Amino acid sequence: MRYSRCIDIINPAACEFMFNLHCELGQFFYELGCRDFDIGGDELFGWQEDGVIDKSLPKWQNLDHWQEYAQKVTGNDQAVAYDAFILYMNKLCAILRSIGYESVRMWNDDAYRKIDTGWQGATNLDSSIEIQYWCPLTNNGENTARFYLDCGHAIYNFINPYAYYTLYPDDAPSLITPDAI
Fold first, then answer.
1. Is the pTM of this model over 0.85?
2. Which of 32, 82, 101, 147 counts the most CB atoms within 10 A of its CB?
3. Got the DSSP string for 21-80?
4. Separation in Å, CA 99 to CA 21, 58, 126, 127, 157
5. Rounded CA gap, 69 and 72, in Å?
6. Cβ pair 154, 131 in contact under 8 A
7. What distance in Å separates the CA atoms of residue 181 and residue 135, rounded to the nearest whole number?
8. Region 119-132 average pLDDT
9. CA 90 to CA 95: how far, in whole Å?
10. In 10 A of CB 161, how many CB atoms?
């Protein structure tokens, strides 16, 4: 199943467009003195029509073409669609590092996402990618700040209640508890 609400990260034309866009913007801002670049990595599949985040995300299991790609590239038949995402993020990081960026950052939402992807570590996120840690509830709270540090990532404290304001539906779980940090 294909989703029109996101870039198809294994489509060669889409990848060429995105990589060229990152090169062009990266070079432009690097020449202006920027040394940090945010590659995002969150809100991967967008929002539902009613504006509520789709918490079930069964889409990962339905991205068969991403899974086939990941298995082919890694040579690992245990690779899943999420591995294709990691390969894509690593490529973006490599492109920006080749320009000269000292810091390439992504949000923690989809970094090492196991809960709904089936990911078992066929690929790993480049440890030079710095993590903007803003939501401790991601991946059922398993991916703590310590988890990212143990994986070799530098992290930045962007904890959402202090730096991000979002209107959630009445039935949404509380965003953070002190022990979740």
1. no
2. 82
3. HHHHHHHHHHHTT--EEE----STT---TTS---SS-THHHH-HHHHHHHHHHH--TT--
4. 13, 36, 17, 18, 26
5. 5
6. yes
7. 9
8. 95
9. 9
10. 12
